Amino acid sequence: MEARRLRADPAGPDRGSRAASVLVVALLAGLNLAGSGTAHVAGAGRWQVQASYPIALGGASSVSCPTASDCWAVGGSGVVATSDGGAHWVYQALPPRVFSLSAVACPAKLDCFAVGRATYNGGGAIVATADGGRTWTWHSAPDELTSVSCSTRLQCIALGLLGSLLTTSDGGMTWQVQHHPRGIFPEVVTCPTASNCWLTGYDLNSQQQPVGRIFGSTDGGRTWAMQPVPNGIQFVDSISCASAHDCVAADGNDAEMILTRDGGATWTAETVPGSPTINAVSCPTSLRCWAAVDSLQAGVITTSDGGKSWEPQPFPGGLQTLDALSCPTATECVSLASTLQVGLPVQTVPVTTSDAGNTWSTQRLAQGYFGIGDVSCPTAGDCWAVGSSASHELLVHTADGGRTWRQEQTPLPITSLNWVTCPTSKSCFAVGSTDAFTGAVISTADGGATWTSHNVPAAVLYLDGISCPSPSDCMAVGSDQNASSAVISTTDGGAQWTMSSLNGVARRPQLDSVSCPSLTECFAAGGGVQRGAVVLRTQNAGTAWSEQALPGPAAGPVTLSCPTSNVCLAAGATFSVAGLVAGTGNAGTTWTASPLPAGTGPLSALSCPTAEDCVAAGPGTPAESAVTVISTTNGGATWTHQQRPPQEVTAIDGISCPQAGACWAIGHTTSYEVMLSSR
Fold first, then answer.
1. Backbone angles phi, psi at 433, to 5 degrees
2. From CA 542, how far away is CA 669, in angstroms rounded?
3. Gap between the Cα atoms of 380 and 493, Å rounded
4. How many CA atoms lie within 13 A of 51 on its CB side?
5. Which one of 77, 106, 314, 608 has the fewest beta carbons within 10 angstroms of its own beta carbon?
6. What secondary structure, in 3-state letters, does 394-406 show?
7. Tens digits of per-residue pLDDT, 413-453?
8. What is the DSSP pairing of strand 460-467 with strand 474-480?
């Protein structure tokens, strides 16, 4: 059993050191879907969190391997798991109230416990699975939890940042608060057996210098006794116990190993050559241990005599830090290293050995979600979402109503994908930008089994929107290399793209939205806050364009949804930062502003599955952080407020409604991306 935590400053913990990243799916209940299928969405609809999915794991903080093949790792608010010794990793769906996770302990192949911080009040979070990650349960704790250890699948102990101590003897169904040593800054807790536990920490002497402490328990953590620690030990920030008698602990900053062979009655100190920083220790037997260290770069040291002597092992280069380590046997270990590159998020790299550390191999961790930009759902249960991941584009797909998501590979080196549209369940197009600062278009004609990249005119810098009234006919908009409007179109499924000259248009801002109700008719919108919004219309598939006259000044950007050739709605904001919806029922000849409910803030998302039914959303008013969601069932003549999503959701950025009353939306909180559904 090994335990380790990141040290908090004696003056107060850094509670914001790790940003959470979670993709959340929520359920809007209370919709009337009976009858003809055209639902009248009542204002009493309730938004409820249904499931969650991590975005980017970032730097890992803990790993636990109950067997040589099965490992679980946590970092940020994510959990990833492998069942093949690290060759492949899968993200786990967690309850949405997790802000960050610091430690994980897996006493058996199917049983894992992860602890950290909750989203809503900064208290502690415990998530547990007893079925290999298919489902997770949630428990709260008095304060943020930083360490967890499980001697069996039923008995676990968790330690809090402020000293709380929780135990369970029923597999996490209930947790009891225990007495713990007072007056120390707690570090880690570990229990190699149901009775024997160790808790480490430090306090401050009269000169305000840290002094390392170790406490032992022989009754499962109900009572604790201080054990003698060698002089000069300042911190004890990682510990691993192969048995009730044999433990190796580390003072990471001072390169000191602290050993006991008599259950803690005596402890001796051994200095590690080279004075590396020691981040984690794992001892599968009383004699064999490994330690994750940092010097100029990440590395591993090992001992075969219980910690009396240590020697380095060959380790892959190019890794900045080694954050976590778990060795289930005397020959097999899984470690998690981090790469630190300027301008890029922290990346986690699994490094494994199966020959007692003679060779170590890097593995590829599953790419996490980093930012979701748009969603398109050709049917109620079939959706595609695009955005960016930690280092490149993101394209994910669900075929079961959002219960599971699969990440797809794209054929181009794309920086980000900004918009996706699916005219049928088999045909989808996504647009964005490439690493070479040019526009990108990719498409599938077989439901995502294969994706094809398309040549885009060189003058295009990036593409922000696309609309396809058929699998063959599409129009995409964005910016050209001169920061002016870019409009391209295809009539052959993307094989050839033609750039529009925008004849007849005086103002040509960057465009970020387009909607084409027919093969020849399209509306496009763009503009900024300072110069105002611009809406353009073409009746001949982009050969000529005309600027539309919206009622009153509108600040950009504006989002469009045009369900028929005659009906088109535009949503955005006024210059006074209030919500704005304008619509036309005569193909753009005239536009009329819709009266909106009081308190409607700026609107950034709009979807109209029919000429009568629309849903619009945005970040709310400047005085509130709650999201605005409004709907109409009469073509925009009147709008009503929908009950807001959970309070932590602060913005909705995009909506796709394959039918009236069934919508998907993407947005974010202050800490993570969110996806919501109304069905």
1. -140, 155
2. 38
3. 24
4. 14
5. 314
6. EEEEECCCCCCCE
7. 787 888 999 999 899 999 998 878 889 999 999 998 899 99
8. antiparallel
**Sheet with 98-105, side-by-side order of all strands:** 98-105, 112-118, 124-129, 137-141
Q: Tokens in use for 550?
A: 């919206």
Contacts of residue 391, defined as CB under 8 A and 6 or more positions apart, other chains included, come to: 344, 345, 347, 367
Dihedrals φ, ψ of 339, to 5°?
-105, 140
Which among 448, 443, 446, 441 has a CA at the least distance from the CA of 462?
A: 441
3-state DSSP percent of the chain in helix, strand and coil, to 5? 0, 45, 55
Label residue 344 exposed, middle or buried (CB < 10 Å: 0-12, 13-18, 19+). exposed
Integer Cα distance of 654 and 50 in angstroms: 19
**How many beta carbons lie within 10 A of that of residue 176, not counting itself?**
11
Tokens at 284, concatenated: 């599968």
pLDDT at 393: 65
Of residues 305 and 34, which shows the higher confidence score?
305
The one-letter amino acid at 23:
L
In this prediction, residue 549 has a pLDDT band, given cuts at 50, 70 and 90, of confident
CB < 8 Å & 24+ apart, contacts of 386-389: 386/417, 386/418, 386/419, 386/420, 386/430, 386/432, 387/416, 387/417, 387/418, 387/673, 388/415, 388/416, 388/417, 389/55, 389/56
Strand 485-490's sheet: what is its strand order?
460-467, 474-480, 485-490, 498-499
The model's confidence at residue 335, banded by pLDDT at 50, 70 and 90, is: confident
Q: Is 287 exposed, middle or buried (0-12, 13-18, 19+ CB in 10 A)?
A: middle
**Average pLDDT over all residues of the chain:** 81
Identity of the amino acid at 267: W
Q: Are the beta carbons of 156 and 111 closer than 8 angstroms? A: no
356 closest CA partner among 328, 330, 326 = 330
Residue 35 falls in which region: left (phi positive, over 0), alpha (psi -120 to 50) or beta: left
- For position 551, what pLDDT does the model report? 80
- Which of 523, 516, 512, 524 lies closest to 490, judged by CA? 516
Name residue, tokens 């990141």: 6
In contact, 299 and 312? CB cutoff 8 Å: yes
Residue 17 structure tokens: 């050191």
pLDDT tens string 578-626 = 888 999 999 988 999 999 998 888 888 899 999 999 999 887 655 555 6
Of 240, 214, 217, the closest CA to residue 227 belongs to 214
**Contact at 8 Å (CB) between 292 and 327?**
no
Threshold 0.70, pTM exceeds: no
Contacts of 548 (CB under 8 A, 6+ apart): 523, 535, 536, 537, 584, 588, 591
**Structure tokens belonging to residue 526:** 């763009």
What Å distances lie between residue 143 and 104, 317, 320, CA to CA?
17, 38, 31
Residue 355 pLDDT: 87
Task: Report the distance separating Cα 230 and Cα 212, nearest Å.
Answer: 9
- Residue 361 CB partners (closer than 8 Å, separation 6+): 316, 351, 352, 353
